[in-house]
Specification:
Elements (H helix, E strand, L loop, with lengths): L20 H13 L5 E3 L2 H8 L8 H13 L3 E6 L2 E6 L2 H4 L12 H4 L7 H6 L17 E6 L5 E5 H10 L5 H14 L10 H19 L14
Helix pairs in contact: 1-3, 2-3, 8-9
Length: 229
C-alpha cells in the first residue's frame, strides 16, 4: 500500500469539522485503505471488519451512519458496480499522487449511466480501462450539464427534458435546468451526489410547477421560498 498524504488544511475544513470523532476515524482509515484512486468498499459489514478489526465497541450501524454523514458533507460519494457497493473519497485527486495505472476497484465514471453493450463488444472492452461513458449525441443529445459534489457532471439529455416536460406541463423545464445549473455553480458545498441528483431535479421541478399554478390564480399570487437555499 502506498504512503498517503494528509494535509493540515483538514484541521480548518468546515465539512470535516462537522464530523464526530468516530466519523473522523472512519475517514482516516478509509484514506489509508483506499486504492490509488481513492476508491474502496462501501458495505458497512465489510468496512467494520476491515477498518476496525480490533475494535469491539463499534457496530455495523455506527459505520453505516458515519458513511451517511460523510456523504452528506461531500467528503465521499457512493455508487454500485456489479452488485457491490463502493465509495470514492471526493478530494482524492487534489490530495494524493496515484502510482498505479490500473484501478483496483470499478471507478464511478465507468458504471454511472453506462450503456448495455452487446456480448461481442463487451469482450473487446479492456476491463482495466476506466474512461468516462459518453452517450451518442445522435441517439440522445446532451443539452445541459449539472455540476455534482465530486466535481463531475450529470448529463441532462433531450429525452429527460421531454419526459419532465410531459410530467410538469406548466413549467419551462429547460429554463429550470438552467436555474439548477446556476444554483449548483453558486452553492458548491451543497451540490448533490450522483445518486441524489434525480431527487433534487424532481423536487425543483415540482416546486416550480406549484409556483406556476399559484401564479395563474389572482387570489394566490404568492411565491413560496426556494427549498434548496
Amino acid at each position: 500500500m502506498s504512503s498517503r498524504i494528509l494535509k493540515d488544511s483538514i484541521l480548518t475544513d468546515k465539512a470535516f469539522n462537522t464530523l464526530s470523532l468516530l466519523e473522523e476515524s472512519i475517514y482516516h482509515r478509509l484514506t489509508v485503505s483506499a486504492d490509488d484512486y481513492g476508491i474502496f468498499y462501501a458495505d458497512p459489514v465489510l468496512l467494520l471488519r476491515i477498518l476496525f478489526p480490533r475494535k469491539k465497541d463499534i457496530s455495523e450501524e455506527d459505520v453505516r451512519e458515519g458513511l451517511d454523514h460523510l456523504e452528506e458533507t461531500g467528503l465521499i460519494f457512493r455508487y454500485t458496480a456489479d452488485g457491490e457497493d463502493y465509495l470514492k473519497l471526493s478530494s482524492w485527486e487534489n490530495d494524493q499522487r496515484p502510482r498505479n495505472t490500473r484501478h483496483k476497484f470499478p471507478c464511478p465514471e465507468a458504471v454511472e449511466e453506462a450503456p448495455v453493450l452487446p456480448a461481442a463488444e463487451e469482450k473487446e472492452k479492456a476491463p482495466e480501462e476506466c474512461s468516462p461513458v459518453r452517450e451518442s449525441p445522435a441517439a440522445d443529445e446532451i443539452v445541459i450539464e449539472l455540476p455534482l459534489n465530486d466535481n463531475t457532471l450529470y448529463n441532462v439529455t433531450q429525452e429527460e427534458i421531454s419526459e419532465f416536460s410531459a410530467l410538469y406541463p406548466a413549467v419551462d423545464v429547460l429554463q429550470e435546468y438552467r436555474g439548477m445549473k446556476a444554483w449548483c455553480m453558486s452553492n458548491t458545498q451543497k451540490r448533490k451526489t450522483r445518486n441524489g441528483i434525480k431527487k433534487f431535479i424532481n423536487s425543483w421541478l415540482s416546486n416550480a410547477q406549484k409556483q406556476s399554478q399559484s401564479a395563474s390564480q389572482p387570489s394566490q399570487r404568492q411565491l413560496p421560498a426556494n427549498p434548496f437555499l
